[in-house]
Design goal:
alpha/beta, Rossmann fold, eight-stranded mixed β-sheet, six-stranded parallel β-sheet, 18 strands, 19% strand
Amino acid sequence: MKTGPRVVLFGILGRTPCAGVAWQALHYLEGFRRIGCEVYYVEDTGDWPYDADRFTISDDCTFTLRYLARHMAMVGMSDRWAYRSGVDQRVYGMSATQLSDLLASADVLVNLTGSTLLREAHMRVPKRIYLETDPVRPQVEIAQGNRVTWGMLAGHTHHFSYGENFGAPDCGVPMGEFTYLPTRQPVVLDWWAGESAAPPVSSPGRYTTVGSWKQSSKDFEWNGESYTWSKHVEFLKFVDLPRLAGASFELALAGVDPASEALLNGHGWRVADGYALSRDIEPYRDFIRDSRGEFTVAKDQNVRLRSGWFSDRSACYLAAGLPVITQDTAFGSVVPTGRGLYAFRTMEDILAALDAIEADYEANRAAARDIADAYFDACGVVERMLRQAGL
């Protein structure tokens, strides 16, 4: 018998086999499991498999199936996942019949990242949650009359977003006809606690982050202004930080070109291979745990339109008991800042945050962990979401 709602999480682990995506899905799956849900993972995007060993889209899903099986075993779900290949529509993991029966009996479908275009078979689930992790662009597209985006959202019964400042007077994101319920990044705290290798107070250590350098495919124009997606635009605004701060900074970047890497090195940044680091979830976690804290930026779209977005990765730093300095998107309206977590707009803000952290590092570590516990605990996040959806 079911002990709780039957939850089907739709995701993109196989399509995007990198550590950040994997941790995000695993945190949701484990959170649902721990609050007593009967949870399943389904990947049914219609896309062809991606083979990360050969760096190519492929008609062979061997890598994808191996990758999914390994991660599902981590959360005790070796028999509770399904992958439909976009090549021939064959279903792996669970059988096609089992998947059909699951969709007929599920209480709620959670479309993580909104990457799955819901089809007739998915509509059998009575509650269908659109779970938006990258806000702003979908709202702007709908305001601009994009019927494809509208149709994708319209297939859901509930809409949740990491844009926790939506609707506030200082938020410039157009809301349109959909009602977005605020939610945030879940983190399984004990997965990140452990024995952090963060250096003691007497050691300068290094502030780090992980991300992609250049991504321009999601830029857009709105109300006569251009808004960028790529984080390199924001990093370059603060390129002099290592020289001014006298601290050590390391960026684990994917997609950084030689000229950009040379530019960063010339300004005192260390650059690591973000793609290699993200091939598996354990090295990614070790890299975060071995940091003194995180320094990072946000996408211009979230910064200027003040969506209230916050990063999954930054939530993991907090859970590891590591202070975070990140660009202000108005997330401070819902999560406390000023100790353990710092929001910045200017270089002066960053330098002040570094001074505050170094003045009492252990207190900032404790505050970071307290914020993670109070605001990002996976069980609390997913329980609130299900309750808001009427379960």
